[in-house]
Write a structure and sequence with these properties.
Chain B: InterPro entries: Rieske-like_NirD (IPR012748), Rieske_2Fe-2S (IPR017941), Rieske_2Fe-2S_sf (IPR036922). The complex is a heterodimer. Chain A is an alpha/beta fold. Chain A contains 26 helices and 39 strands. Chain A folds into six domains: 3-109 and 241-301, FAD/NAD(P)-binding domain (3-Layer(bba) Sandwich), CATH 3.50.50; 124-237, FAD/NAD(P)-binding domain, CATH 3.50.50.60; 314-393, Enolase-like, domain 1; 407-539, Orthogonal Bundle (Arc Repressor Mutant, subunit A); 547-628, Sulfite Reductase Hemoprotein, domain 2, CATH 3.90.480.10; 631-784, Sulfite Reductase Hemoprotein, domain 1 (2-Layer Sandwich). Chain A starts with a strand and ends with a helix. Chain B is mainly beta. Classes of the chains: A alpha/beta, B mainly beta. Strand 39 (802-803) of chain A pairs parallel with strand 2 (17-23) of chain B.
Chain lengths: 811, 111
């Protein structure tokens, strides 16, 4: 007897069901409802349609003729308005009542629309069907679009529109793109590829409101106040199984329509398939399991035994021309190790996650050629202990060469700047080498590369080595840490020349050997990045030593010391009272006067820090940064205010300097002194930067030290006015910030680059001005009180996560 | 049958960071790696009792803030030339919450 089958939804899964039924000659009479006014097409291929590589006609799976040949009654553009399970009928929108023997749900999913204010404006769309695609295609060159959602769909929408000349911005709430399929490093590479296509990518960005004008979308407003103007806003933040009709019909529904292994719902005459189902708690979005389900469902309808089994899944994607692969579990578990391979030249990143000598997860970017082999290892739980050393190179490469530590330099393009002082590119150096300059001195003589400050010496040597091969013997330079073979100087230079603006960018482009650095390189990289890219790079507290993360000095017993700033060492009775009150209130065991002319409260509990800061803030006191690799104090004497020998207002200048420089991060701590006369009561000539006032002006000297090394400063310049002195000091500070190795005090840096090199730059008024401007730009971000910020935004993080002591006491 | 105690939200601990749990017998540090794995260890370095929760987290290791001893978060074992071990407690993430096995309270009580 012919089975009457009604199918709701003409998607890829239900389409595959029909193919199985007809291919196997099932005796069925099918009626197919579809809310979209068309039959089954390959929804996955909408992206190539959007990008203009294919047309809608190319992606139609079943055309009118196909349905006609199989006597399928097509009711396209019609919805089902109700189901009577007892009578086994469905009611169509127009009131027709149709009887069924078996009913199949293939209702798919609905795009999730974030209920932001303005989400119902004209021009706010999802990316789900042909209508959405056509809407995007109609936008036209020169228009602006915003895509919310940095997952696969969002990125394909973005890339498709960008290919049509639309100015696209992607807004993603997570720190990196496609966080469910990719890790941070692969996310970075993907982002880079998109940016190269002219797409603006904003991660860690929260959408606040969609702004409109005359009922039409005008811009997206982020919660940091940024407005992104757009003519079209595409929301691609996820999908939800479409279960409304099933729910009305009284079927068992969780997140999706519950089905068993035979794809039967809670009603034995009703089946479901595709994105609308929930099987053993799982939902499905990828096409492979949907096709498996379709086959099982068809077999169930034909009375054959079959069971749907969830399989280990891998994702192999091409997002906008970039090859991606991820499989298994590459996060969240104990007892695992990573094997990481990076090839900066080809933009390749591969990471394997190993547990008990078995590969349990993999993430590949840029080269997915061997992904099936690795997926096989994951599925088969192959013991890889024998091939562990060469595993990451893939099946064809067992027993290869070790990684080339100079890959990063070899990968640099010819126009990458190696020597920042003299503006020498890699290409010029290579040319000089080819013309016979085969050692460092010859390169210096011919190109001037590394002839000034010398910090790029390591890179020049690597260019020599990669160009000359075995003919050049590399001098041994100390690498930054175990994560890389590059020196601090190399890394600094490459951050600038390759414009690396994030930690994952450095790790990938410079071939880091670990997944996320170590306690040696992370604080250094964090400083280099924020010093070179103050606006683009966001300071990473987790890469800072505890003192800088919690803005206080850790003591040997785990308590902290709190030192409020006293500008130029000047205080007031009110400030002193506030300090005394705080010391009483928080039972501070030790109060000490420091060498930098201020007061240290020692022995404060970590969890009390925000409270004591709040109290001190109320009295106008701010952080003294006594814990920072940054500006500490400007020590002064009383100068002309009171002293009979004073020649200038040294206290006033000290206060001005401290107000200009405070909050700035430097390679190591930075202490200043301003003395009002050559008697030098402020001990300015053993500071990092010292000013000694004389009748005729201000003598600025640098590179003093009074620690493990004791050194007198070296004279840099004498200037006539306070303003000039301040500018010179800002310029030197900025030069130090831009060039020195992390944890080198000024005197160590000076010994490497030479006082002449520094003096030359400061004496050049244009260069001085540019340095001051760059310093000021950075200070727009960092010249603020971190205590006040932490009191406001981070106070909770200073408390214990849980307190069982209190709980027990309460019981 | 192990008993898991809900300690707090995963998001309350920064990636590559840690927070402290106070107990009658001292503090336990709960670490979260860049991959969102969580680990619970005694918050005291065997060297000079440095608070490990304040250290820099890298990979599956933490560096003590006082003298740079490095510990494996999984085993609590000191790395490199240093010798020593920190007690570890079973920890997991379930639906965005950090769960510690109740033994972390009992084990510590027995010490």
């Amino acid at each position: 007897m012919t089975q009457k089958i009604i199918v709701i939804g003409a998607g890829m899964a239900s389409g595959r069901v029909l193919e199985h039924l007809f291919d196997n000659g099932a005796d069925v009479d099918v009626t197919l409802f579809n809310a979209e006014p068309r039959g089954n097409y390959n929804r996955i291929m909408l992206s190539p349609v959007l990008a203009g590589d294919q047309t809608y006609q190319d992606i139609v799976t079943h055309d009118d003729a196909w349905y006609a040949e199989r006597n399928v009654t097509c009711r396209f553009g019609e919805k089902v308005s109700g189901i009577d399970r007892a009578a086994k009928t469905v009611t169509a929108e127009n009131g027709d009542v149709l009887a069924y023997d078996k009913l199949v749900f293939g209702t798919g999913s609905n795009p999730f629309m974030i209920p932001l204010p303005g989400h119902d404006l004209d021009g706010v769309i999802a990316y789900r069907d042909l209508e959405d695609t056509e809407r995007m295609m109609s936008l036209g060159e020169g228009h602006k679009a915003v895509v919310i959602g940095g997952g696969l769909l969002g990125l394909e929408a973005a890339a498709g529109m960008a290919a049509r000349g639309v100015d696209v911005t992607v807004v993603h709430i997570m720190p990196h793109l496609m966080e469910r399929q990719l890790d941070e490093a692969a996310g970075y590479l993907l982002r880079k590829a998109l940016v190269e296509k002219g797409i603006t990518v904003k991660c860690s960005a929260n959408s606040k409101e969609i702004l409109g004008e005359n009922g039409k979308v005008r811009a997206l407003l982020l919660d940091d106040g940024t407005e992104l103007p757009c003519d079209l806003l595409v929301m691609a933040v996820g999908i939800r199984p479409n279960v409304a009709l099933a729910q009305e019909a009284g079927l068992a529904v969780g997140k999706g329509i519950h089905v068993d292994d035979q794809m039967l719902t809670s009603d034995e005459n009703i089946l479901a398939v595709g994105e609308c189902v929930e099987h053993n708690g799982a939902l499905f979005g990828l096409v492979a399991p949907l096709y498996d389900q379709a086959k099982v469902l068809a077999q169930t309808l034909m009375g054959q035994d079959a069971a749907f089994v969830q399989k280990e899944l891998s994702t192999k994607l091409k997002v906008t021309g970039c090859d991606l692969f991820s499989a298994g579990d590459f996060s969240e578990a104990e007892g695992r190790e990573d094997i990481v391979f990076r090839d900066p030249a080809r933009g390749v990143y591969k990471r394997l996650v190993i547990e008990d000598n078995i590969v349990v997860g993999a993430v590949f970017y840029g080269d997915t050629a061997d992904s099936n082999w690795f997926f096989g290892l994951i599925k088969d739980k192959t013991d890889i202990s024998e091939m562990r050393e060469t595993l990451i190179f893939g099946p064809a490469y067992q027993g290869g060469e070790p990684l080339d530590p100079m890959a990063a330099v070899a990968a640099l393009p010819a126009d990458a700047e190696i020597c920042g002082c003299n503006g020498v590119c890699k290409g010029q150096i290579v040319e000089a080498i080819q013309n016979g300059a085969t050692d460092l001195d010859a390169i210096k003589a011919v190109t001037k590369a590394s002839a000034s400050c010398g910090t790029c010496t390591g890179l020049v040597e690597q260019v020599l080595a990669t160009t000359l091969g075995d003919d050049f013997v590399m001098p041994t330079a100390k690498p930054m840490c175990g994560c890389t073979d590059l020196t601090h100087e190399d890394v600094r230079r490459l951050i600038k020349s390759k414009e690396l603006k994030s930690m994952p960018a450095v790790w990938q482009e410079l071939g880091w050997k670990t997944s996320c650095g170590c306690h040696h390189c992370r604080p250094a990289l964090n400083f280099y990045l924020l010093a070179d890219w103050p606006l683009e790079y966001k300071d990473d507290p987790q890469s800072r030593f505890i003192n800088e993360r919690k803005h206080a000095n850790i003591q040997k017993d785990g308590t902290f010391s709190v030192v409020p700033r006293m500008w130029g060492g000047i205080t007031t009775p009110d400030e002193l009272r506030a300090i005394a009150d705080a010391a009483d209130k928080f039972a501070v065991p030790t109060v000490k006067v420091t060498g930098g002319q201020r007061i240290d409260l020692l022995g404060v509990k970590g969890e009390d820090l925000p409270e004591i800061w709040a109290d001190l803030n109320k009295a106008g006191l701010v952080s003294g940064h006594a814990y920072s690799k940054g500006l500490r104090t400007v020590k002064t004497c009383v100068g002309t205010d009171h002293c009979r020998f004073g020649t200038q207002d040294s206290t006033g200048l000290g206060i001005k300097l401290e107000k200009e420089l405070w909050g700035s991060w430097t390679p190591h701590k930075l202490k200043l002194g301003v003395s009002g006369c050559p008697r030098n009561c402020a001990e300015a000539t053993c500071k990092d930067i010292g000013v000694v006032c004389v009748d005729s002006g201000y003598q600025v000297s640098i590179g003093g030290a009074a620690g493990m090394d004791v050194r007198e400063t070296t004279g840099l310049i004498q200037v006539d006015s306070e303003d000039e002195a301040i500018d010179v000091i800002k310029a030197v500070t900025q030069m130090y910030r831009e060039n020195a190795k992390y944890l080198d005090r000024i005197y160590k840096w000076m010994a490497k680059v030479g006082i002449e090199w520094i003096a030359e730059r400061v004496n050049d008024l244009d260069e001085r001005k540019a340095l001051v401007e760059r310093f000021e730009l950075s200070q727009t971000i960092y010249r603020k009180d971190p205590w006040a910020e932490h009191v406001k935004d981070k106070a909770e993080s200073y408390k214990p996560l849980a307190d069982f002591k209190k709980l027990e006491a309460a019981e | 049958m192990s008993d898991w105690i809900d300690i707090g939200a995963l998001d309350a601990v920064p990636q590559r960071g840690a927070r402290v749990i106070k107990t009658t017998f001292g503090c336990v540090a709960v670490f979260r790696t860049a991959e969102d794995e969580v680990y619970a260890l005694d918050n005291a370095c065997p060297h000079k009792q440095g608070p490990l929760a304040e250290g820099i987290v890298h990979g599956k290791s933490v560096t003590c803030p006082l003298h740079n001893w490095v510990f494996d978060l999984e085993t609590g074992q000191a790395q490199g030339a240093d010798e020593g071990q920190v007690a570890t407690y079973p920890a997991q993430v379930a639906e965005g919450r950090i769960m510690l096995e109740a033994s972390f309270l009992q084990l510590r009580a027995a010490e």
